[in-house]
Amino acid sequence: MQILTPHVYWAQRHGEIYLRVELSDQKLPQGTLTFGHGAKGENPYTFSLEFLEPVRPEISHKSTQRQVDIKIKKQEERWWDRLTLQEKKPLFLAPDFDRWLEESDAEMEIQTKEEEKLNKISVESRVRKDPYLGLKKGYLFMYNLVQFLGFSWIFVNMTVRLFILGQDSFYDTFHTTADMMYFCQMMAVLEVINPLLGLVRTGVFPALIQVAGRNVILFVIFGSLDDMQNKPVVFFVFYLWSTIEIFRYPFYMLACIGTDWPMLTWFRYNLWIPLYPLGVVAEAVAVIQSLPIFDETRLFSIPLPAGLGHSLSFSYTLQLYLVLMFLGLFINFRHLYKLRQRRYRLRKRKAH
Question: What residue intervals traverse the membrane (predicted)?
Fold first, then answer.
């Protein structure tokens, strides 16, 4: 059987030599021979190189389906004028332009790596360890756990009643779940306080918009108007809220202990895309349905001087709130989209 020489491509750094041997479907080496598919089909292939200067005996290699990558460390870290001792380059040897760098570029690469290392050390030395970090993480973990349990109870309760009672469950949602929803939404005020205290990195304004918006719907629209409490819109608002939160809060719980569950992360950053706008639409429907009730009952009306009339209906305030609601939707949607994109870039960077 004829022994052939494969195509070999090379590049160097100050401390290493990189060889790429074009050989597919390689079999285990036998002595100095490697069997595989080269330019001339399946044959035994071998090659030898006498390097310009001494190299270390440790050689690392990695085989893929199409090639063998070899890394060799130089005995002395310096730039070589050529690879082989003989001035004439072997016919099977060529530069590996995928890895090729000129000496000045290689020196710049080393300098960049050293600067990055020094910057990392400098940043780490400046960052002081927080003695209360464990306490803060414990508090955030417990907060998210309590919220997760609360919204899970609401979600399960509503789902079971929906399967048992069907559409009849729409009309008594408020009376069966309101107490737990009151508790969860009052607890949610901490989501505005936490960034103010520096406990979390999220912005204060997006949290304030979401918490204030939901509490207006819950306490002002549903809580103060008996006629609204039996409407089906309550079911849709509560169900959309709880569906979003049963994925959001466990995601934050795992983040407190440095754990990432890919499926939960996917739900956290993708499920809100359809559910969040649907939730805002359901809230808007609730506001619109409450307008004639506020006009009729004059609840929360603003007294006016005698010359201007008796009072200004609260419904005008709610109409302004509707405009702000959709403005808040845009702000929060943009904020969540940026979080999603940032998370995607971090995962892509880690993958590489």
Answer: 138-160, 237-257, 269-294, 314-337
3-class DSSP assignment, residue 44: strand
Q: Which residues, including other chains, have CB under 8 Å from residue 287's CB and lie 6 or more apart? A: 217, 221, 318, 321, 322, 325
Residue 25 — pLDDT band, cuts 50, 70, 90? Answer: low
Buried b (16+ CB within 10 A) or exposed e, 6-15: bbbbbbbbee
How large is the C-alpha radius of gyration of the chain?
34
State the residue for tokens 């107490």: 179
Lowest mean pLDDT among 14-18, 157-161, 188-192: 14-18
Closest by CA position to 330, among listed 221, 216, 210: 210
Residue 32's pLDDT is 44
Of 18, 139, 182, 276, which is the active-site residue?
Answer: 276
**Whole-number Å distance between alpha carbons of 112 and 256:** 34
Verify whether residue 283 is a known catalytic residue.
Answer: yes
Catalytic residue among 115, 283, 296, 337: 283
| Alpha helices (H) in the chain, listed in sequence order | 103-126, 133-165, 173-187, 190-196, 204-215, 233-256, 262-270, 272-297, 314-351
Q: 142 is written with which tokens?
A: 């417990």
Residues in a beta bridge with 51:
84
Q: Is 217 left (phi over 0), alpha (psi -120 to 50) or beta?
A: alpha
Q: 248, 270 in Cβ contact below 8 A?
A: no
Task: Report which of 51, 45, 49 is spatially closest to residue 22, judged by C-alpha positions.
Answer: 45
Q: Residue 123 has what pLDDT?
A: 56
Q: Which two tokens stand for residue 332?
A: 């929060």
Distance from chain centroid for Cα 95:
40
pTM above 0.70, yes or no: no
Q: Could you tell me if 211 and 333 are in contact, meaning their C-beta atoms sit under 8 angstroms apart?
A: no
Max Cα-Cα span within the chain: 112
